[in-house]
Design goal:
Length: 352
C-alpha cells in the first residue's frame, strides 16, 4: 500500500511536504516506493529457511530500509499537536504520508523482532525457548509498577521541560522573557485556533498542554493503570490494555522527539560560538539572537527530555508486559525487569 501510494503521488505530481517549505521530489517518492517493495520481499523471506547469504541479505535489507522509511514518521508529533490544538490540517497528503510511514515502521519493526528471535532459536512470538508449537494461547503477566530506578530516571528526564514550559507560561500570563514581550508573543500567535487562544487566556500554552499529554502517556507506561483500564474508562474498566496501544505511539513519538531534542541542544551552543550558522530572527516577534538560542536550548531540553523519558518507560513497559506462550513451561530467556526487582527484594528480605 505504501509503495502504491508513493508511486501514485510521484506519477501525478502530488505535493507531499517533507518540511513545511520543502516537498518530496517525484524521484525521492519513487525511491521510497522501491524501498518499501524491497522491505516487503525481505519480510516475506523471513518465514523461510535461508542459508547464510540469504540471511545476510534479508537482515541487511531490513536494517537499511527500516530507518529510511521511518524518517517519514518523525513528523507525527507535530501533526498531533496541531490537530489537538484545533489549528487545522496544513496538508492532507502530508498527514497521510506520516500515517503510512508510521504503520509501515511499526510492521517492519515487529517483523524484524520476530526474525531476530527465530535466528536466535527462540519463539518468534514470545521470545522464550520452549517446547511445543508457536500457536498456543499467550499468557499475559499481571499489572505491575516500573522499578524505582526507572521511575526516578523518567522523572529526572522530565525535569528538562521546566525551563521551556516556564518561559511559555510567563508569556501566556503577560510577562516578558528572553527578550520577548508577552504582547509580541500573543500577536505572533493571533492566527491560531479559537481553542489555542482560549487556553492562552487562562495561562496555558497549547504546546505545554501537548507535553502534558506526553506525560500522561509516560505515567501510564510506568503504573498498573496503563496495563489494565482503570474505573474512569467506564465500559473498558478492568479489561487488559492491548500491549501495543501505548507502545507504538510511545516509541514513535519518543524517537522523533529525542532526535529533534538532541539536535537543538547541540545546535544552540555551536551557533552561539559561531561554529554553525545563526538562526533567522523573527522580526515581528522582536526576538534577539541570544533569546532565540536560549529558547532553542530550552526546547531541546524539553523535547529531548520527554523523548528519552518515553523511551525509558516504554522499555520497562515492554519488559513487564511481555506475554509468554502457554507451552513455555520453562523459559530460558533472561528475567524481565520486574522479575529482577522481585528477586532482589526476596534476597534482601530477612529470614524467618
Amino acid at each position: 500500500m505504501y509503495a502504491i501510494v508513493e508511486a501514485g503521488w510521484a506519477v501525478t505530481g502530488t505535493t507531499v511536504p517533507f518540511t513545511p517549505h520543502t516537498p518530496y521530489s517525484p524521484v525521492v517518492q519513487l525511491i521510497l516506493a522501491g524501498l518499501a517493495i524491497a522491505a516487503g520481499i525481505a519480510c516475506r523471506a523471513t518465514s523461510r529457511q535461508l542459508d547464510r547469504p540469504g540471511r545476510l541479505a534479508v537482515g541487511g535489507a531490513l536494517i537499511l530500509t527500516t530507518p529510511v522509511l521511518a524518517m517519514g514518521a518523525i513528523g507525527l508529533p507535530a501533526y498531533f499537536v496541531a490537530l489537538a490544538a484545533g489549528s487545522g490540517l496544513e496538508s492532507a497528503t502530508g498527514l497521510a504520508h506520516v500515517l503510512l510511514s508510521t504503520a509501515l515502521t511499526a510492521v517492519l519493526a515487529l517483523v524484524a523482532l520476530s526474525y531476530r528471535r527465530r535466528l536466535a532459536g527462540t519463539c518468534p512470538r514470545c521470545g522464550q525457548k520452549h517446547t511445543g508449537g508457536h500457536d498456543a494461547p499467550l499468557v499475559h503477566p499481571g499489572a505491575t509498577t516500573a522499578s524505582r530506578r526507572t521511575r526516578r530516571l523518567a522523572y529526572l528526564l522530565m525535569c528538562g521541560m521546566l525551563p521551556w514550559a516556564g518561559v511559555k507560561t510567563i508569556w501566556t500570563l503577560g510577562g516578558d522573557a528572553l527578550g520577548i514581550t508577552a504582547e509580541k508573543w500573543k500577536e505572533s500567535n493571533s492566527g491560531g485556533s479559537e481553542v489555542a487562544r482560549a487556553l492562552a487566556e487562562v495561562g496555558i500554552d497549547v504546546t505545554v498542554l501537548a507535553a502534558g499529554l506526553g506525560f500522561f502517556l509516560l505515567t501510564g507506561l510506568m503504573y498498573p493503570w496503563g496495563q489494565v483500564f482503570p474505573r474512569w474508562t467506564l465500559v473498558l474498566s478492568g479489561r487488559r490494555v492491548p500491549r501495543l496501544l501505548p507502545l507504538i505511539p510511545a516509541w514513535l513519538t519518543a524517537l522523533g522527539l529525542s532526535v529533534y531534542g538532541v539536535f537543538l541542544v547541540i545546535y544552540a551552543p555551536l551557533a552561539a560560538l559561531g561554529v554553525l550558522p545563526a538562526p533567522r530572527l523573527d522580526a515581528d516577534l522582536g526576538a534577539t539572537l541570544s533569546g532565540t538560542l536560549w529558547l532553542a536550548a530550552f526546547g531541546g531540553m524539553a523535547f529531548g527530555g520527554l523523548g528519552f523519558a518515553l523511551l525509558t518507560a516504554a522499555r520497562s513497559y515492554s519488559a513487564r508486559t511481555r506475554p509468554v506462550c502457554a507451552t513455555a513451561t520453562a523459559p530460558e530467556a533472561p528475567p524481565t525487569e520486574t522479575a529482577r526487582a522481585d528477586a532482589g527484594a526476596a534476597s534482601a528480605a530477612p529470614a524467618d
